Amino acid sequence: MIKFRCGNCNQKLGVPDEWAGKRIRCNRCKESCQVPAPQIELQPVSQTAPVSSSTDLSMPEGELEAGRMSADLLNLEAGTPLPREDQHVPILSKTKIAIPEYRISRGDDDHSRPMMALAKGAGKIPLALICSAVCALIAAGIWAGVSAASGYNFFLLQTGIGWAAGFGIGLLLTDRNMMMGIAAAGIALGGMMVGKVFVANWLLLPEMNKLANDQQAFAREMQKNMDREGLKKLLDDTPELIAMVGLLELAKTGKVAPQTYDFLVRDFFNPTEEESAVDTDTIASQIAEMIDSWDRETVLAKAQEHLPELARMMFLKSKPSIELADAMQMTFNYWDVILVPIGLVWAFRMGHGGES
């Protein structure tokens, strides 16, 4: 056992003899220091039996071959000093290979280090998740802000939310794993949904309410988006519009006066209990007789012809008030099939630590 003191903190240390010349780390100050060579205690030579020149120093040949003593040492004459360079032979020869540092610890072994590192890093996981969520929210706000400022929904920007979520994980965690990647992808998906809410509330909802409050704009938009299939669905969902088509045909042929037509439209959408001079039963019979003579294609053709007026009727009937849920539906389109997975993969790779 080699006992010595640390050159930095004077801590008393003890290591095995075979560690002589190696560098170790002090368990107190954690600084590196070199283990000195073992001190050999020299036994005093007895003066009672002086060695004479006639003393036989030879050894049996068998012991010489066994390596118990060097043959060169036997050839030395008594009192011949060793060469100077051999008086202090280093225990370890000088080499360019780095000598590993040994650590002297009190009860700590190599198996406990990974657990300690894991426990130390686990404390940062909640902060990393919070940081990731904040970064995702900032990216969602940027997406919605750019869209609201430009008046156009930049769907491509939602992929940046995935990058921001993974970036937030990497800010605080250097040792990441698959679970962190999955967490980053989940946060990214939530950030994309929040971004859609921002876009719907800041961009689409004001535009849609403005359109809903403008009767002419509502009618124009309805005609622009109303193809044959859409018109067929509209008539199936609102059968009373077929009666309005028949009323429009009666007004077109002059069988119903304009004043009577306006009264019937108002009374149809806002029925009142007031008595009126209009013979509604006769007009209703005429409309029913006319509709019975039409087939499906004729109904669609007549509805297409009177679509502007039907759009005005729909506006009066529905008095549309757009909610946030209606605007949210418009934030989803076919681009999401490509952009959302890209953002999630980006978040997973950065959260997992494989962004390189």
Residue stretches low in confidence (pLDDT < 50, at least 5 long) are: 51-55, 61-89, 91-95, 102-112, 114-119
Rounded radius of gyration (Å): 48 Å
Q: What series of H and E elements makes up the topology? A: EEEEHHEHHHHHHHHHHHHH
List the strand order in the largest sheet.
4-3-5
User: So how many helices?
Assistant: 15
- Mean pLDDT over all positions: 75
How much β-strand is present in the residues? Answer: under 5%
Structural class: mainly alpha
Biggest beta-sheet profile: 3 strands, mixed
Oligomeric form of this entry? single chain
Highlighted features:
two-stranded antiparallel ribbon; mainly alpha; 3-stranded mixed sheet; 356 residues; 3 domains
Question: Which helices and strands occur, and which strands form pairs?
Answer:
Elements: E1 2-5, E2 12-15, E3 23-25, E4 32-34, H1 61-65, H2 71-74, E5 102-103, H3 112-122, H4 125-150, H5 159-172, H6 178-212, H7 215-225, H8 228-237, H9 240-253, H10 258-269, H11 280-292, H12 296-305, H13 307-318, H14 324-329, H15 336-352
Parallel strand pairs: 3-5
Antiparallel strand pairs: 1-2, 3-4
Task: Describe the protein.
It is a single chain. It is built from 15 helices and five strands. A hairpin with a 6-residue loop joins strand 1 and strand 2 (12-15). The longest helix is centred in the middle third of the chain and has 35 residues, at 178-212. The strands form two sheets. Strands 4-3-5 form a three-stranded mixed sheet, with no helix packed on it. The protein has a two-stranded antiparallel ribbon with strand order 1-2. Helix 4 packs antiparallel against helix 5 (159-172) and helix 9 crosses helix 11. It starts with a strand and ends with a helix. It has helices spanning 61-65, 71-74, 112-122, 125-150, 159-172, 178-212, 215-225, 228-237, 240-253, 258-269, 280-292, 296-305, 307-318, 324-329, 336-352; strands at residues 2-5, 12-15, 23-25, 32-34, 102-103. The chain folds into three domains: 1-37 and 97-105; 124-211 and 335-352, no CATH class; 215-326, no CATH class. With 356 residues, the protein is mostly helical. The model is unreliable at 51-55, 61-89, 91-95, 102-112 and 114-119 (pLDDT under 50). 56% of the residues lie in helices and 4% in strands.
